[in-house]
Each structure stands twice: as C-alpha cells, then as structure tokens.
Amino acid sequence: MFETLSHLALQQYWWIIISVLGAALVLLMFVQGGQTLFFTLSKTPEERTLLINVLGRKWEFTFTTLVTFGGAFFASFPLFYSTSFGGAYWAWMILLFAFIIQAVSYEYRSWPGNFLGGRTYEVFLFINGLLGTFLLGVVVASFFTGSPFLINDMNQSFWQSPWRGIELLFNLHNLTLGLAVFFLARTLGLLYFLNSIEDEELQIRIRKRLLVNGLPFLLFFLTFITWLMLRDGFAVHPDTGVIFMQEYKYFINFIEMPVVLILFLTGVVLVLYGIGVSVFKETSKGIWLAGPGTFLTVFSLFLIAGFNNTAFYPSSSDLQSAITIMNGSSSHFTLTVMSYTSLMVPFVFAYIWYTWRAINRHKMNKEELKSENHIY
C-alpha cells in the first residue's frame, strides 16, 4: 500500500503524524501546568497530596508521548534531529533533564525513609512544570523564527552560536510562545483539576485561578499569532528548492490551506469557550472543550510550519541551510517501512482513551487517598 506512494506523499504523511504527536504533547502538558500550581492551590499537606495524586495518574502519558514524538522525528526527519539535538544541545538537555526529575519525583516522593523529603520532590515537579512547558514553546517557536546553523553538502550541520540553544531565549517572538504554552498548560491543569477533584474548597480556589492564568495565555498567544501573521516567512521554491523570504508567508499558508485555517479557528474557539464556561457557568467539563481545542490549534500551527512549500526548521545564519520536509526526511524505503508501523497509532490512541476513561471514572477526594494502595 505505502510503497505505491511517492516520496513526497510519504514525507507529507509523516509530517502529519509529527504534527499529531506534537499537538498531543502540548495538550498533555496540562500535567506540567498543574505541577506549577501545587503550592498555590493547596493550604494543607493533605490537599497537596490530593493534587499530586490526581496528576500522578496521568504523568506517564506526557512522558511517553514526548519519547514517541522524539523517536518519530528522529526516524522520519533525521536531518532535523541531528541538527537541532546536536546543535541546540543545552536547550534540549535542560528540557530532557526536567522530565527525568519528574519521573523520579512521582516515584520517590512518598517512599518511606526518603532522605530528601517530600518537599524536595515537590519542588522538582514545579521545576519540571516550569521548564518543560516554557522551553517546549520556545523550541517550537524556532520553527518559525529560525536557528543559527549551517549545513554543508555532506549534510553535516554546524551550530553557529556558542550558547548551544540558549540563544533561542534571546528572541522575543520565541519568548511569547514559551510564555503562552506555560500559561496554557497551567490553565489546562486547572480545568483538569476541576474535572477530577471532589473538594468544594479546592474547586473555589481553582476557579479563582482560571482567569489569572487564562488571560496571560490569551495575551501572549495573540501576540505570537499576530506577529507570526505579519512577519516574513521561510518559503521554498517548488521547482528549484531554493529558500527565500516571503512576506506574510504564514498568513498566506492559512489562506491557501483553508481547511487548516478552519481547524485553527475551531481550536481557538474551543479553548476560549472551555475556559469561559468553567469560569462563568461553573461547569467542570471545560477540559473536554479546551483539550481538543488545544490539539487542533497546535496541530494547525505544525501544518503551516511544514506544508505549502515552507521550511519547517529555518536557518537564521544561511537561508539555503533551512530544513524542509523534502530535504530533511528519510529515504523512500525507510518512510515506507515506518508507515506500516504507524498503522498502530489509532490503537495506541484508543488504548490511551480507554485507560483515561477508566482512571477518571469518578472524581478523587481526600477519603479515597486513605484507601489507595499506592500514593505518589
């Protein structure tokens, strides 16, 4: 089946898969966002333990999706992987280290004889929530703003900054998306708490925090999108493969791909509506609107970054070194073999959905913690 497809069709197919995984990863960052709220929302150690255990049921989903996202990117677009992970070394290492301490923290926080103390691991979870969301947003923003690298004729990449990825923090456009993802994750975390916790006092505090985090998210996100629509983009000549700067490139991508624009607008409306009904109608179902909305919005941004003759990993040092889905992918044979394995993706998502529903069959309360065999 897949072997009959052209190389370009396979490249586009795998960019869609990468976009799906990237969107799922940002959605599942509600775990990281919730981790930054433990100290703000809880008034007692028992309340903090309740919040931690509500997220403890889901932290593996985010971790697994991150690993799958990275693995799929490496296999389908190895030139991006080698250039970015080899060049922006410190940005990726800090991000990955933040996820390592998350796994350790959930497993060892409540262990008997824990010599570091539970508080230490709670701080680690906060660090993971802060760095994980913010840095992911900054790195994704570089798909639109560019990174300082050169690639020679042998596909060897050379990073042009001694900061090894830290220089991405010096770009204001990158920072706006980093902060947008941070506050979005916190907002989704609050919506998830509302839907998963049975505690009246905590729910009152959660609702008070929704606007405090939802409004900054909206401000930074609108700033990023407006800036993106107005800036020049990294376009690819369809016949020669030459990279050039095009005015309003990403706005043009939306116009020339109306289905993607509809998905994007639908996603934004769902996110805003999910926040709004949770604040003003006091429903606990907002996560079921804002969650899919987040997925559609991020999915659309990935599509305009790589489709419609666009360089998805542009170089700010040398235009012709920019990586596209055409020049950065694996061979036709590799993509074909991988495509058969991708047929398992729907089953994986079905399993996640089934497990999620089973875990969230009823809301968690303080009494339930006393009957749990395993407490994070």
Automatic annotation (TrEMBL):
Subcellular location: Cell membrane
Keywords: Cell membrane, Electron transport, Heme, Iron, Membrane, Metal-binding, Transmembrane, Transmembrane helix, Transport
Main location: membrane
Domain of life the protein comes from: Bacteria
Membrane topology: Multi-pass membrane protein
Pfam (any one): Cyt_bd_oxida_II
Transmembrane segments: 12-41, 87-104, 125-151, 171-194, 210-230, 250-275, 287-307, 337-356
One of the GO biological process terms: aerobic electron transport chain
Organism for this UniProt entry: Geofilum rubicundum JCM 15548
Gene Ontology MF: a single term: electron transfer activity
Family as reported in the entry's similarity comment: Belongs to the cytochrome ubiquinol oxidase subunit 2 family.
Identification of the protein by name: Cytochrome d ubiquinol oxidase subunit II
GO CC aspect terms: cytochrome complex; plasma membrane
